[in-house]
Specification:
Layout (H helix, E strand, L loop, with lengths): L9 E5 L4 H11 L4 E6 L2 H12 L5 E5 L5 H14 L2 E6 L13 H28 L4 E6 L12 H23 L5 E7 L3 E2 L18 E2 H13 L4 E3 L7 H16 L13 H8 L12
Parallel strand pairs: 1-2, 1-4, 2-3, 4-5, 5-6, 6-9, 7-8
Helix pairs in contact: 1-6, 3-4, 4-5
Length: 289
């Protein structure tokens, strides 16, 4: 087990009322952690806290917009009231973005939620983590769309690409700090059954077969942290790790081989890409991250 995950340690999680955020909260609570949770959905957050408290988990909640620095300050205060913070998870995100030259207001909102808010949380919590004598960790929720950057939702891809680079830079700087007991990790979910991917889902909505559950992603986070992985790349039920790796390699080779941008979706490279992924091609369906 990663030393940041321990009994009576405090886990701070944004976007914690539903989906992956709530699954992570449940998972670390089973390891005895106390929880400071943030979400903008007051009803969902209240319900989440009630479910956790049924198992006698100490929970503090903050309702508000993750882009509001005052809300983040309250979250920090609530977390410190519970004890020493040992895990910070930047999970809050929105997916509806905009095209490369459209929707300027939506671009700003996506970048504020997916990138700037995460940076603010880091700036507020990392100095505190570094000042503690005990081990701790910070986890940012990335996306395969921030690595292979498929066309169709430029704002979201850019926000997650920026967050990936930020997390890589943070991991390096923490590693260079003499005596640092803080680690950084990038959790990269696959196709997951969450309200973001399945709007309008309820407790009775059947999970589509291709998707992983949020619980599986949370379990992968714990396993990846325990292995001291930085990149925690999750699979799902339709895309193998092998296919993910080939998609990522192809994207990197666009620059090295000077192919057209996003050549994977270029008609002139369609057959070349299929030959490249080879036996993995059978699993390449509509989930084209």
């Amino acid at each position: 087990m990663h030393p940041a995950i321990h009994t009576d340690g405090v886990a701070v999680i944004t976007g914690a009322a539903k989906g992956i955020g709530f699954a992570i909260a449940q998972c670390v609570a089973r390891h005895g952690m106390r929880l400071a949770l943030l979400d903008s959905d007051a009803d969902a957050l209240s319900n989440a806290a009630s479910r956790l408290r049924q198992d006698e988990v100490p929970v503090s909640v903050v309702v508000g917009d993750v882009t509001d620095i005052g809300v983040i300050s309250r979250l920090r205060d609530e977390a410190m009231r519970l004890g020493d913070v040992s895990l910070v998870v930047n999970n809050a995100a929105i997916i509806n973005g905009g095209g490369p030259w459209q929707d300027p207001e939506q671009w700003r909102r996506v970048m504020e939620v997916n990138f700037w808010a995460a940076l603010t949380v880091q700036q507020m919590f990392v100095p505190q983590l570094l000042s503690q004598a005990t081990p701790s960790a910070i986890v940012n929720l990335g996306s395969k769309e921030g690595i292979t950057t498929p066309p169709g939702n430029a704002a979201y891809s850019v926000s997650k690409a920026a967050l990936r680079v930020l997390t890589e830079q943070m991991a390096h700087e923490l590693r260079e700090q003499i005596g640092s007991k803080v680690t950084a990790h990038l959790l990269i979910p696959g196709y997951t059954f969450t309200p973001m991917n399945s709007p309008g889902m309820t407790a009775d909505t059947p999970k589509p077969d291709p998707m992983w559950t949020a619980d599986q992603v949370a379990e992968s986070l714990i396993a990846g942290m325990t292995a001291n992985d930085f990149y925690i790349l999750c699979e799902d039920n339709e895309v193998t790790r092998g296919l993910d790796e080939k998609r990522i390699q192809w994207s990197a080779d666009d620059l090295i081989l000077n192919r057209p941008a996003l050549s994977r979706w270029h008609p002139d490279y369609k057959e070349q890409f299929r030959a490249f992924i080879g036996t993995e091609a059978a699993t390449a369906t509509s989930n084209s991250n």
